[in-house]
Write a structure and sequence with these properties.
- The chain is mainly α.
- The chain has one domain (3-94): lambda repressor-like DNA-binding domains (434 Repressor (Amino-terminal Domain)).
- Helix content is 54%, strand content 0%.
- The protein contains 6 helices and no strands.
- The model has no long low-confidence stretch (mean pLDDT 87).
């Protein structure tokens, strides 16, 4: 069973608590008080308290806290990567030029005045 399968079973409240536990763990690992983290993140201490308790917060506050904890790498999962299908790759390869041609010279055909 994958981690994402397990997370699907969580309620929204449980997921908020999971995020709060993550923030608290990293804050304590860096030996920071809630006030220090709040100051570094540019938010109020109460916001940090609510975030850690899983009582919710806005996305901007979470990003500010993650930045202050130097933990923005968790947001890498949101990066959208466009992949080229093998069919498209083959199509693009076929369209690539394989030879160079000399510049076409426009030959003047002899035009009879008649």
């Amino acid at each position: 069973m994958s981690d994402s399968t397990i997370l699907v079973a969580y309620t929204n409240g449980a997921l908020l608590e999971l995020v709060g536990a993550y923030v608290r763990h990293h804050r304590l690992a860096q030996n920071k008080t809630q006030q220090q983290l709040a100051d570094e993140a540019g938010i109020g201490r109460i916001t940090v308290v609510l975030l850690e308790k899983g009582r919710g917060s806005n996305l901007l506050s979470l990003i500010q806290v993650l930045r202050a904890l130097d933990a923005l790498d968790v947001l890498n999962v949101f990066e959208v990567k466009t992949a080229i299908s093998p069919l498209m790759m083959a199509e693009l390869t076929l369209k690539q030029r394989k030879r160079a041609r000399p510049a076409s010279s426009k030959k003047q055909k002899y035009k009879s005045p008649w």
